[in-house]
Amino acid sequence: MRILSKAEVIKEQCRKVASTGKSNMFDVNAVFKIALEMGYGELADFMMTNTKAYGALILTGELGDSDIIEL
Q1: Is pLDDT of 71 > 90?
Q2: Is 62 in contact with 29 (CB distance < 8 Å)?
Q3: In this structure, which long-range contacts are made by residues 24-29, counting pairs with CB atoms below 8 Å and at least 24 apart in sequence?
Q4: pLDDT tens-digit profile of 22-49?
């Protein structure tokens, strides 16, 4: 069993939210609400504290642990 990095967890949560089809992923408020409803606190926190990296994730699908700023 392999432990996922924080970036891998956030990318997976983002994919799962996107797969619901409930919102355009650039509608940050809607995605934030969906993430919380689905229990994805890591994604919700990331979106609020790393807005530039969130946009890059949506555009490229790429995210590394070094892209995450912890407050």
Answers
A1: no
A2: no
A3: 25/58, 26/55, 26/58, 28/54
A4: 999 999 999 999 999 999 999 999 999 9
pTM of the model: 0.92
Q: Is the four-CA dihedral 16, 6, 59, 46 of positive or negative sign? A: positive
The 3-class SS string of 1-35 reads CCCCCHHHHHHHHHHHHHHHCCCCCCCHHHHHHHH
**Domain spans, the chain:** 6-67
Q: What does residue 66 show for φ and ψ, rounded to 5 degrees?
A: -70, -15
Mean pLDDT rounded to a whole number for the chain: 94
